[in-house]
Amino acid sequence: MRRVVPVALILSLAFALRAWGANFGLPYLYQPDESIVVRTALQVGDGSLRPYSFVYPALYSYLLFPFYGVYYVLGFALGQFHTLDDFAITFIGDPTWFYLIARLIVAIFGTATVGVIYLIGRWNYDHLTGLLAALFLAVTPLHVVHSHYSVTDIPMTFTVALAMLGISRFHNTARTRDFLLAAVTCGVAGAMKYTGILVTLPLVLSAGIVTLSKRWPLGQLLKSEMVGAVAVVVAFSVAAPYTLIDFGAFYRELFVFQQGMNREAGQSFLDILSFYLQVVIGNDVISDSLGVISLAGFVFLLIRHKAVDLLLLSLPAFFLVAMATQGRHQPNWMLPTVPFFSLYAAVLISTLLGKISPIGWGMKLAASIVILALVYAPVRNSIFLDYEMSQKDTRTIAKEWIENNIDADSKVLIDSPGAGPQLRANRASLEKYFNDKAEDKSLSQAPAEVRQTFAKYERYSLEALNRYGGKTYYVDYVFHEWWKPQENAEDLAVYPVFGNFKRKLFSIEELRELGFDYVVVTGESRAYYMSEEGRQKWPTYYQFYKSLDQGIEQLQEFRPIPLHAPGPTIRVYMISK
Question: Any idea what DSSP says for residue 49?
């Protein structure tokens, strides 16, 4: 019981930090990738297991589906839904509960990862190491923030940690069944998010370490590796079957397009590696004390180089090298390494405490104060982030102002569909969107079941509009060619592979000719294109943003306020006729 209580307290803290603010932005969606996962889950209820996009594998969406089934049954029993069509129309009209359910499940995955890193620390070192590793991960801001998003990063991080738990267990037992179980979990990690498959590299390393320690013949090692490879492939294929069934679409979207973007981005290996070390080790600032201790723990384990130390060091090492070769970087790409950097800090601290013998009450008190001091900054930052996420976003504030001050059915151009206020489109705007979409390569060349699903989505969207009682607008968007390194770069031959990606950029004169009344601009896009780099690489976009401040009237500006109004700066302009 004495060991269970502190673990339970740490897990409770972890879940509280990850669940607080889970309703951020809703019913509006300010993390656009969430819709890919949730819409794929809802497709399962329509009888289609094929994801409409292969940006993410479908396993997490499949796991979401039963929870949406329970939600439907409860809503049907309470009279909220009368048919499956009602259920789908509700999602389009007000998706709050759909995303809240998905986010809370991600929060559970994030909390469970804290439990797994405790077990890794306890089984491979000792109880104190496990507790410290769990505590450090529980309060790490990067992990806390991403545990609010219903995308695949945190579920994948959980399965990667679970696979490493299995790999380290095989390292200790050398049993074939433990190796197979670890291999299956590696396949599942890849089916959560493709980069999770990198955990198979520590699996291969573990087989080599066990072979050397047990003095097995080389044939035994090769046999184990082959069996493990089959187990990984089978598990991945069962968990994400359409990656093989529709391998052509999977290959185009994942390899051809993504690798094309990565090559065009052109960032150096050392620059990207430096970025990741700052994000993961230092929680965005390398001087952070816990981050420095994590780095020191990594070096300590490398110098000590016990077999289990090298095994547990291998995952972040493989991830850092693999991600640094991509040509571009994103902080969330290194999330699978975060639990292990927490573990390295825990190993170093518990080892130092073990050197102080005997540890009396005075020394225990001093150690506790030091540990509390180490977690103070991460706890404070996580609480601040949670509190800020729970506040009204600038995009929501801007939307409310527009609806209170701008006439319905006005023609509004928004410079970003994801980063701008989510105004409700009127019928003319919706019909134009669906007509344009029907001509896109992504839909016109898609399998019949994808086109049928999209036809239902169109019907549900128009019915949801009929049931909507608020103001609607004719909405169009500027399109940013974000996959290019600069404006005059040659387009990728495989693009577009998904979405409505016809280039749309307007001058002020064109906006007047087309009858637009207002332009809504987000600060993030404007700041980049108005920079010197933006002027050189994207001259047409630079001229567009520059002309807004010179040719039309700015009506209102909504700036973010730390802790009180998160989001980008939003500017609303009126076009004089």
Answer: -
Tell me the CA end-to-end span of the chain in Å, nearest whole number: 75
User: Cα(254)–Cα(245) distance, rounded to whole angstroms?
Assistant: 15
Q: How many helices (H) and strands (E) does the chain have?
A: 27, 5
Q: Convert 239-248 to b/e letters by CB count within 10 Å (16 or more is b).
A: bbbbbeeeee
What whole-number distance in Å separates Cα of residue 193 and Cα of residue 188? 9
Lookup result for tokens 């105004």: 423
Q: What are phi and psi of 556, to 5 degrees?
A: -155, 150
0.70 exceeded by the pTM? yes
Tell which residue, 460, 575, 422, 415, has the closest CA to residue 511: 575
Q: Is the dihedral of CA 12, 13, 15, 20 positive or negative?
A: positive
Strands 411-414 and 474-477: parallel
Question: What is the b/e burial string over 85-103, where b = at least 16 CB atoms within 10 angstroms of the residue's CB?
Answer: ebbbbbbbbebebbbbbbb
Structure tokens at 58: 């479908």
- Consecutive H or E run containing 571: strand 570-574
> Per-residue pLDDT for the chain (577 aa), expressed as one digit of tens each?
677 899 999 999 999 999 999 999 999 999 888 988 998 898 887 777 788 777 788 899 999 999 999 999 999 999 888 888 899 899 999 999 999 999 999 999 999 999 999 999 999 999 999 999 999 999 999 999 999 999 999 999 999 999 999 999 998 888 888 999 999 999 999 999 999 999 999 999 988 888 877 777 777 777 777 888 899 999 999 998 888 887 777 777 776 666 656 655 567 777 777 788 777 665 543 346 788 888 889 999 999 889 899 999 999 999 888 888 777 778 888 899 999 999 999 999 988 887 665 556 666 677 778 888 888 889 999 999 999 999 999 999 999 999 999 999 999 999 887 788 999 999 999 988 888 777 766 666 667 777 777 788 888 999 999 999 899 999 998 887 777 777 877 766 655 544 444 556 778 888 888 889 999 998 878 888 888 888 888 888 888 888 888 778 889 999 999 888 999 999 999 987 6
Contact 368, 151 (CB under 8 A): no
The count of other CB atoms within 10 Å of the CB of residue 576 is 9
Any idea what DSSP says for residue 475?
Answer: E
- Enter the tokens of residue 535: 């002027």
| Alpha helices (H) along 440-538 | 441-444, 448-467, 508-513, 523-529, 532-537
CA separation for the pair 334, 461 (Å, rounded) = 37
Q: In the Cβ-directed half-sphere of 25, how many Cα atoms lie within 13 Å?
A: 21
